[in-house]
Amino acid sequence: MTLIAPSILSADFSRLGADIKKVTRAGADWLHIDVMDGHFVPNLTIGPCVIQSIRAQSALPFDVHLMMTHPQNYIHDFAQAGADYITIHVEAQTEIEKTLFAIKKEGKKAGLSVKPDTNISRLIPFLPFIDLVLIMSVEPGFGGQSFIPQSLNKIAAVKELIGRKKILISVDGGINQITAPACQLAGADVLVAGSFIFKNSSYQKAIQTLKEGK
Ligand code: DX5
Ligand code: ZN
User: Fold this and answer.
1) Quick check: CB of 174 below 6 Å from ligand 1?
2) Facing residues of 191 across strands?
3) In sequence order, what are the beta bridge partners of 134?
4) How many A from CA of 139 to the centre of ligand 1?
5) What percent of the chain is predicted at pLDDT more than 70?
6) Environment class of residue 4 by beta-carbon count within 10 Å: exposed (0-12), middle (13-18) or buried (19+)?
7) pLDDT band at residue 213 using 50, 70 and 90 as cut-offs
8) Which ligand 1 atom minimizes the distance to the CA of 173?
9) Backbone angles phi, psi at 96, to 5 degrees
């Protein structure tokens, strides 16, 4: 069954705690938290102190997506704040393997993300060390963008690449009632959705629609 991870980037930040409780009750499987450093991507979002303060609002796994040029300096802080999955980008300016080990050393699951223009062959050296691949189906940086159709081939190719390894495939960006079933058919295990869920009058209905996609 596909897991649904609402991205709180599209939540109402003036009532973040209430929105998180609401989406948790609505049947979300994980909470996706987008961390942007204003350098790896143009946007700035949230850091460990916000994650720490929302940790008590939901028992769901926190899926923390680090869109950061230098994630290595912050792994301990995000782990302490309450992250369960910590995903870094393969395009980050860091020693990828060392940073993945730092995540594992904290006792957390490690993810590796690829931007739309990045060749998935760059994942190969790190497959033995990761629990999740996060395929970006939009350019990282902002919610509410349109799904890039070529992402479907990428999902299928990553699925083939990981073979029988226990690595989850997550897809992030432009997920809605049309793209969700296509991603599921291509092999996605987790769907990250921001605007489709938080801009819907019923979070429950939106999550149900994404889950029942195929
Ligand atoms: C984009 C973020 C996404 C974003 C998805 O950089 O990584 O998680 O919130 O938003 P939607 O679902 O609106 O495309
Ligand atoms: Zn994300």
Assistant:
1) yes
2) 4, 171
3) 113, 170
4) 9
5) 100
6) buried
7) confident
8) 14
9) -55, -50
pLDDT tens column, 19-58: 999 999 999 999 999 999 999 999 999 999 999 999 999 9
Nearest-atom index, ligand 1, CA of 10: 9
Query: Tokens 């309450």 belong to which residue?
Result: 82
- What is the Å distance from ligand 1's center to 180 Cα? 14
| 34 carries an active-site annotation | yes
Ligand 1 lined by 175 (C-beta under 6 Å): yes
Name the pTM for this structure: 0.98
CB contact set of 185 (below 8 Å; sequence gap of 6+):
214
Domain architecture of the chain: domains with CATH: 3-212 (3.20.20.70)
Backbone angles phi, psi at 91, to 5 degrees: -85, 0
53 lines ligand 1 (CB under 6 A): no
Give the integer Cα–Cα distance in Å for 81 and 52: 4
